[in-house]
Every structure is written in C-alpha cells, then in structure tokens.
Specification:
This protein is an alpha/beta fold and 370 residues long. It folds into two domains: 193 residues, Rossmann fold, CATH 3.40.50; 151 residues, 3-Layer(aba) Sandwich (Rossmann fold). Helices cover 49% and strands 14% of the residues. The protein contains 17 helices and 13 strands. The strands form two sheets. A seven-stranded parallel beta sheet has the order 3-2-1-4-5-6-7, sandwiched between helices. Helix 1 runs parallel beside helix 2, helix 3 crosses helix 4 and helix 10 packs parallel to helix 16. The longest helix has 23 residues. The radius of gyration is 21 Å and the shape is globular. It starts with a strand and ends with a helix.
C-alpha cells in the first residue's frame, strides 16, 4: 500500500508524526510538504523534535492570498500524484494544504482519507470551515475525533466511511509529554514560574484582520493579573509591526513576546500555565487534555465538548470578559470526560486504511475476472 500524505502547517506536522510512526510499519508513505508554513519556528523545528521523516517533496509555496496559494499547491500536488500513483491520499485538518490535497486527489480519482473529519464551527466566513466541509464531502474515509463530529457529518448526509477513532493529537500528547519535560528550562529563560503565568496565542484571521478585535484582545492581554507569555505568530507580528499595538505590548510590564516555540516547549508552557488564552483549535483541546483552564478568543468553537464540560470559556473579543476570566476561571472539581478517545487513534487509522486498500484491491481483482 502506498499513501501520499499532504501536510503544510504546524498542527498537521504534529498529527502526521503520531500517525506516521504507526503507519510506516505497515505501508509505504510518501510525505509531501506544501510549504504553507515554512520558517524554522513554524516548520523545521517540528520535523526535528518529533522525528517526523523529512518530506519526500516540498513545494515551497509559502504565504500568500488564499487563491494564489491554493492554486500553486493544486498544480504541484497533481504532478506528484501522477508521478507517485498512490493508492490513497491522507490529509489532515482544515488548512489550504488540506483542501488542495483533497481537490487534486478527487479529480484524479484517488481515494481521500481525512483525519479530523466532521468538525464544524457553522461559520462560513472562516476559511477553515470551507476547507473542512469541502474536504469531508470529497473523502472516502472520514476519521472523526469525537462523536459530535460523527453527528455533524450525518446531518450533511455523510455516513459511509465514517469512523470515530479518537483524536490523534491525544496520541501525540501522550507520546511526547515525557520528552517535553527536558524543555522545562524555558521557565528560567522567560523568568516565569509554573502556575503563575498565562500562555496566550492569537493568529486566526477573524481576530488579526479586524483591527477592533485585535486591539481589544491585546488590551486584555496587557491587563492580565499575572505575567503573560505570548509566542507571536508571524502573521500577527507582521500586522502589528511598527504600530500602536506593538508599542502597547512592548510597554506592558507583564507581557513577554517570543518567537513561535517548538512543540515540546509549547507542551511545557501549556501544561504549567495558570490558564491558556487562545484562538487556536488545537490548543483548546490540549488545554482540556492537560487539565488547564482555557479562555477562547472566538465566538464559537469546533471543540464544543470542552465548553459543555466547563473547561473552556468562549470569550470572543470581549476585553472585560477575558480579563475577568483570567482572574477567576478555574477547573477545581470539574470532571473532564474522555471525549477524545483512548490515545490509540493512530493505530485505528492505520488498521482502517489497510483494510480499505485491501478491499479496494480485492474488488478490482474480482472485476477483472472473466
């Protein structure tokens, strides 16, 4: 069995590392990196830390407008499909790389397997929502992280090939948490103490591209009652560069701005934070799994289970809500049901992929008989 796996952004590197570690014992995997995330802090460090095999192909697409970026990916991925002739394509999540991989494959009649299928924000102004919906409707195998995701697909008439396997991010977290302890020196480097700082991330277009929202979020971060560590996404850094928001952050005595950090350092920062303030979907989920309060800088979330369990607050861009939550929100005494599986999603995905390709091959063989 030959798979072509398409990745391009930092969350996908983490998911692919978990699955590839199991998958490569039983199949040939060709790894294609679109280059959507391309600098060291957003790409190379993840391959190194997670022992993810070097990509067989790197399209080097880089950043750009959605249309131009996706078009470049489509052309490059199609060429590689025609060269490699994979049995199936594996895509992750909801980025432009995900959509480009799915569209390239479906046009060439290559089955698609989508890891993290069925997530929905029901907000069609989000590029990620369009990407995930279109990818799901192109896919032959849909690997869902939760029962909610399965139900979302059923509402859209998608029931065939749907499997609730659990979340591969949980696999990764369990596997790498022990290794991440070696990176605890970051606390001394940043002059912070465990449980006495907030970890904040801001990168989604719905926040960075709307000045009034971004201003409210940064003002809230600057008013945190304890130190804040803010690993700044390249897009966010570029938007605030040279302006009043950058000046405000630099003058805030409790805010430490850093470059994006690697996965293992990030795990340490997440695990020991007093609370996490973020608009990242993956970090919301990791906060839940690590038992850390999460304050989400969005009006909705795909990870509705975390909110229903009382472990996550949807604060939107409400400055007062965010500041109050940072001061008061705790998880003391709250149960965290195991929504995200048992940490064996990668094994289940590998079994289902192998069975699918085996059945496809058997069916082709029987059709060729006279």
């Amino acid at each position: 069995m030959k798979l072509l796996t398409v990745v391009g952004a930092r969350p996908q590197f983490i998911k692919a590392a978990a699955v590839s570690r199991v998958l490569r014992r039983r199949a040939t995997e060709v790894l294609l990196h679109t280059g959507q995330h391309y600098d060291y802090g957003m790409s190379e460090v993840f391959f190194r830390e997670l022992s993810l095999p070097a990509p067989d192909y790197n399209l080097g697409v880089g950043s750009g407008n959605h249309g131009a970026q996706t078009a470049q990916m489509l052309a490059g991925i199609e060429d590689i499909i025609l060269k490699e002739k994979p049995d199936i394509m594996l895509v992750y999540g909801d980025t432009n790389s995900t959509l480009a991989g799915a569209l390239s494959a479906v046009k060439l009649h290559i089955p698609i397997a989508h890891v993290e299928a069925g997530l929905r924000s029901y907000k069609k102004t989000m590029p990620e929502e369009i990407n995930r919906v279109l990818t799901d409707h192109c896919s032959a195998l849909l690997f869902c992280p939760t029962s909610t995701a399965v139900a979302n697909l059923a509402k859209e008439g998608i029931t065939g090939g749907v499997h609730n396997v659990g979340d591969v991010m949980y696999d990764a977290l369990l596997y790498y948490t022990a290794d991440s302890a070696e990176h605890s020196a970051i606390f001394g480097k940043l002059s912070i103490s465990p449980r006495h700082y907030y970890l904040a991330t801001i990168h989604r277009a719905e926040n960075t591209d709307r000045p009034e929202r971004l201003s409210a979020l940064i003002e809230a971060v600057c008013e945190a009652p304890e130190p804040v560590v803010l690993p700044l996404h390249p897009r966010t850094r570029a938007i605030i560069a040279g302006g009043p928001l950058e000046d405000k952050l630099k003058k805030a005595p409790h805010v430490t701005i850093t470059e994006p950090v690697g996965y293992l350092e990030m795990l340490q920062l997440e695990k020991h934070a007093r609370a996490i303030v973020t608009d990242s979907g993956g970090i919301q989920k990791e906060a839940y799994l690590l038992g850390v309060p999460c304050i989400t800088l969005r009006d909705e979330t795909e990870w509705v289970e975390t909110v229903e369990a009382g472990a996550n607050i949807l604060a939107g861009a409400g400055k007062e809500i965010i500041v109050k939550a940072m001061a008061d929100f705790t998880l003391d005494g709250k149960e965290r049901p195991p929504f995200y599986g048992d940490g064996r999603a990668s094994e289940k995905i590998t079994d289902l992929l192998c069975n699918f390709i085996g059945n496809e091959a058997a069916g082709a063989g029987s059709q060729s008989q006279p």
